[in-house]
Amino acid sequence: MIKNKENAPIIIELIGMGAKKYGGLEKFIVEECRQLKEKGIGLLVVFAVEPICKSYIADLENLGAEWVVLPFTSNLSYYKRIGQMIKSRNVLAIHKNFGQKNIWALIAAKQLGVKYRISTEHCLPDMSRIGAIGYYNLELPFCTEKLCVSKTTAEAFLHAPLIYKNKITTEYLGVSDFFFDKIEMQRKYGLDHNVVNIANVAYHNPIKGVDVLLMAVKILVDRYKADNFRIIQIGGGQNAKQTEDLHALEQQLGISKYVNWMGVTDYVPEILSACDVYTQPSRSEGIPLSIMEASLASLPTAASRVGGIVESVVDGKTGILCNTEDPDALADILYKLITDSGLRKSMGDNARMHALAYFDLRRNVSKLLKHYGVDKI
After folding, report:
1. Consecutive sets of 10 residues in the chain, 377 residues long: mean pLDDT of each?
2. What architecture is the 182-358 domain classified under in CATH?
3. How far apart are the first and last CA of the chain?
4. Which CATH number fits domain 9-174+360-376: 3.30.390.30, 1.10.10.10, 3.40.50.2000, 3.40.50.360?
5. Which of 10, 81, 203, 281 has its CA 20 to 30 A from that of 375?
């Protein structure tokens, strides 16, 4: 752990997981650290497991951030450890991200007088479950604000039988603009410039719908007789079986020729810049940072109409949406984009303008910091 040498105000950022890659959320936190440093405020990042991505940790350290790994062993021990951190520092705000067990950090923070206690919901909650309603009714009294990464996520809370709904608001995440030469990136990653390259950035968890994409590929090949495309799948399994299941489905469908598995990488913007179309057939989403990045690369998106996707993709303008669990509809959309370069160009240009208008990294981090009370010190 990096030690803060001064008793300056500090923000505690509870991640609730580790860091396997230098992705959109990690870049968001680095920008948060940079802006806090400009204001003379420190950042302490609390991971649930040891972070793997060393370049991400190096950037945090270079900006003067502290970080610590605090695995959850029991409610009482976690509560005590967080309490010790708060007592030993001048904590201005605590921010809970993933991990329901982090509610104990919010409880400790309230009892120890931390003024700003923020909880961000990154996923679309299933408010049909009694357990979920019970959990959020328990969490909300300990928050000063409940931030949602999309309006759709916020609406799920507002339509549920919850108390303290006045604490719920929407704050978008954001991504940093970039430019990489398309031909150069195609050469770097060995992508065929004679076909339409369709990118998909997703872990292999079933919630991301990569299996739906594979079934859509089968339809493209068999029904539409499409051959001039390749799927560029970026990501990996959160366990080995998830990836094994997808490879088994690929073999079963006989579509291996059309799928390029790139694995987990820290260079997603470079690969997106080498592609022509983006697709995200998720079963549930808060709001995908990958669509924001694909939009900055001027890619039109073919995606499922679920969660915050409807806010990151303007249907018919920056991409085309379909119902989830519908490989036939997804194949139809992809075929339109594969065969119409003019449509790809116009939608891609619109997508970039939309991302710049709503998902600018620096601007949206600045909005988040206001919830920490940094403008009041």
Report:
1. 64 92 94 97 96 95 96 92 95 95 95 97 94 96 97 97 96 97 98 98 97 98 98 92 97 98 96 98 96 98 97 98 98 98 98 98 97 89
2. 3-Layer(aba) Sandwich (3.40)
3. 27
4. 3.40.50.2000
5. 81
